[in-house]
Specification:
The structure is a single chain. It contains four helices and no strands. By secondary structure, the protein is an all-alpha fold. It has one domain. α1 runs antiparallel to α2, α2 runs antiparallel to α3 (61-84) and α3 (61-84) packs antiparallel against α4 (88-111). The relative contact order is 0.17.
Amino acid sequence: MKLTHSICTIILIVIGCVHIIFSIVIFNSLSEDTMWFIGSGLSIIYLGLMNFLFKNNLHQRSTYLITQVSNALLLAFMLSLNVVSPMIPGFVGLFAVMVLIGATWRIYTLENK
């Protein structure tokens, strides 16, 4: 389960990086839309980093709760994103976040019996 968690976390960080790179490709200039697009990529990267932080603090309930709430918020965003604009990266991100939520719960419950 820890390997699955790490793989999904890396997938999220890669999706965030790709999102930022595509903002440079899609938008020709630095505009408000470009900044929002970059900000979305950064938030995905931050969530991935937060999941790595969770793996280093397995016994802290607050880290677990904050990570799960953050994962749930991104899950809600990814669901709405895929309804509005269905694209393969969105579905990959949605799947990764769903697996992360399950893996995070499983790791926390096994480590804190």
